[in-house]
Prior knowledge:
The chain is an alpha+beta fold. It has a single domain, classed as Roll (SH3 type barrels). 17% of the residues lie in helices and 30% in strands. The protein has a 6-stranded antiparallel beta sheet.
Amino acid sequence: MKPHRHWVPEGATVIGLQDLPCRVQARVVGLRAALNSDEREVALRLLEIGFLRDEPVQVMAHGSPGRDPLAVRVGRSTFALRRHEAALVEVQVLDGVTPVRP
Protein backbone atom coordinates (compact mmCIF):
# COMPACT_ATOMS: atom_id res chain seq x y z
CA MET A 1 0.00 0.00 0.00
CA LYS A 2 1.44 3.38 -0.98
CA PRO A 3 1.32 6.20 1.56
CA HIS A 4 -1.59 8.56 1.13
CA ARG A 5 0.05 11.96 0.95
CA HIS A 6 -1.62 15.31 1.09
CA TRP A 7 -0.21 18.74 0.44
CA VAL A 8 1.01 20.17 3.74
CA PRO A 9 1.79 23.88 4.13
CA GLU A 10 5.47 24.74 4.56
CA GLY A 11 6.44 24.76 8.22
CA ALA A 12 3.48 22.60 9.28
CA THR A 13 4.26 20.03 11.94
CA VAL A 14 3.68 16.49 10.65
CA ILE A 15 4.24 13.64 13.08
CA GLY A 16 3.19 10.07 13.72
CA LEU A 17 -0.04 9.76 15.67
CA GLN A 18 1.80 7.88 18.43
CA ASP A 19 3.73 11.11 19.20
CA LEU A 20 0.70 13.41 19.32
CA PRO A 21 0.21 14.73 22.87
CA CYS A 22 -3.18 14.28 24.53
CA ARG A 23 -5.93 16.72 23.55
CA VAL A 24 -3.92 18.37 20.77
CA GLN A 25 -6.04 18.85 17.68
CA ALA A 26 -4.65 17.46 14.43
CA ARG A 27 -5.81 16.13 11.10
CA VAL A 28 -4.89 12.96 9.28
CA VAL A 29 -2.40 13.62 6.48
CA GLY A 30 -2.10 10.01 5.36
CA LEU A 31 -0.69 6.61 6.19
CA ARG A 32 2.98 5.71 6.27
CA ALA A 33 4.00 3.08 3.73
CA ALA A 34 3.52 -0.42 5.15
CA LEU A 35 6.77 -2.38 5.42
CA ASN A 36 5.23 -5.87 5.53
CA SER A 37 1.97 -7.79 5.27
CA ASP A 38 1.12 -7.26 8.95
CA GLU A 39 1.43 -3.50 8.57
CA ARG A 40 -0.64 -3.63 5.36
CA GLU A 41 -3.44 -5.36 7.27
CA VAL A 42 -3.30 -2.76 10.03
CA ALA A 43 -3.27 0.09 7.47
CA LEU A 44 -6.35 -1.35 5.75
CA ARG A 45 -8.16 -1.62 9.09
CA LEU A 46 -7.22 1.97 9.93
CA LEU A 47 -8.70 3.15 6.62
CA GLU A 48 -11.85 1.11 7.19
CA ILE A 49 -12.47 2.59 10.64
CA GLY A 50 -12.03 6.17 9.47
CA PHE A 51 -8.38 7.25 9.47
CA LEU A 52 -8.87 9.04 6.17
CA ARG A 53 -7.10 12.11 4.83
CA ASP A 54 -8.25 15.39 6.42
CA GLU A 55 -10.23 13.71 9.24
CA PRO A 56 -9.85 15.46 12.60
CA VAL A 57 -7.95 13.38 15.14
CA GLN A 58 -6.97 13.66 18.83
CA VAL A 59 -5.30 11.38 21.33
CA MET A 60 -7.69 11.37 24.26
CA ALA A 61 -5.65 9.29 26.74
CA HIS A 62 -2.64 7.01 27.10
CA GLY A 63 -2.66 3.68 28.87
CA SER A 64 -0.06 2.72 31.39
CA PRO A 65 2.53 1.53 31.77
CA GLY A 66 4.40 2.56 28.64
CA ARG A 67 1.69 4.89 27.23
CA ASP A 68 0.10 1.91 25.42
CA PRO A 69 -2.64 1.67 24.20
CA LEU A 70 -3.85 5.11 23.08
CA ALA A 71 -7.47 6.20 23.11
CA VAL A 72 -7.83 8.06 19.81
CA ARG A 73 -10.79 10.05 18.52
CA VAL A 74 -11.04 10.25 14.74
CA GLY A 75 -14.03 12.14 13.43
CA ARG A 76 -16.81 11.31 15.91
CA SER A 77 -15.56 7.84 16.90
CA THR A 78 -13.08 6.77 19.56
CA PHE A 79 -10.81 3.74 19.24
CA ALA A 80 -8.03 2.10 21.21
CA LEU A 81 -4.86 1.74 19.17
CA ARG A 82 -1.52 0.22 20.04
CA ARG A 83 1.43 2.54 19.59
CA HIS A 84 2.75 0.51 16.63
CA GLU A 85 -0.65 0.87 14.92
CA ALA A 86 -0.81 4.62 15.61
CA ALA A 87 2.70 4.96 14.16
CA LEU A 88 1.27 4.22 10.70
CA VAL A 89 -0.91 7.34 10.82
CA GLU A 90 0.71 10.66 9.89
CA VAL A 91 -0.99 13.75 11.29
CA GLN A 92 -0.63 17.51 11.02
CA VAL A 93 -0.89 19.47 14.25
CA LEU A 94 -3.55 22.19 13.94
CA ASP A 95 -3.30 24.35 17.01
CA GLY A 96 0.28 25.53 16.79
CA VAL A 97 1.63 23.21 19.49
CA THR A 98 5.03 21.76 18.67
CA PRO A 99 4.91 18.20 20.01
CA VAL A 100 7.95 16.92 21.87
CA ARG A 101 8.79 13.25 21.74
CA PRO A 102 8.67 11.64 25.20
